[in-house]
Amino acid sequence: MPMNRELLRSQLERHEGLRLKPYRDIVGKLTVGYGRNLEDVGISRDEADFMLDNDIDQVEQHLKTVDEYNELDEVRQTVLANLCFNVGFKGIIGFKRMWRALAKRDYEGAATEMLDSKWAKQVGRRASELAEIMRTGDA
């Protein structure tokens, strides 16, 4: 006779509880969701891909609220989405000089402003690659 999955699920939901942000369980293991032990179990490739798709959707939803983003070609939109994924929406909005350059379609200036940032110093090659794509429009 197969296990009653619905019964188990209801018990686990009640006993484990749902935590949407990582926390330390009673033995100190980094855990998330309904008791998923991230240190010993981790996540599957399918779960990681699912989360990535959700994160991309969220980044795009935020960026679509910015006129300068909507006026860009898809290659440069991708650069901004990559940057936003890395620094968050609040972080990318802080690139005020980059946004001013983009409003004027000054892609050289936008690329320069990307490189003239704390972010660029932190991520190195990623920043150089994205700035070059912003400058040229070539993926």
TrEMBL record:
It catalyses: Hydrolysis of (1->4)-beta-linkages between N-acetylmuramic acid and N-acetyl-D-glucosamine residues in a peptidoglycan and between N-acetyl-D-glucosamine residues in chitodextrins. One of its GO terms (biological process) is defense response to bacterium. Pfam families: Phage_lysozyme. Gene3D superfamilies: 1.10.530.40. Keywords: Antimicrobial, Bacteriolytic enzyme, Glycosidase, Hydrolase. It is an enzyme of class 3 (hydrolase). One of its GO terms (molecular function) is lysozyme activity. The keyword Hydrolase applies. Its EC number is 3.2.1.17. Belongs to the glycosyl hydrolase 24 family. This is Lysozyme.
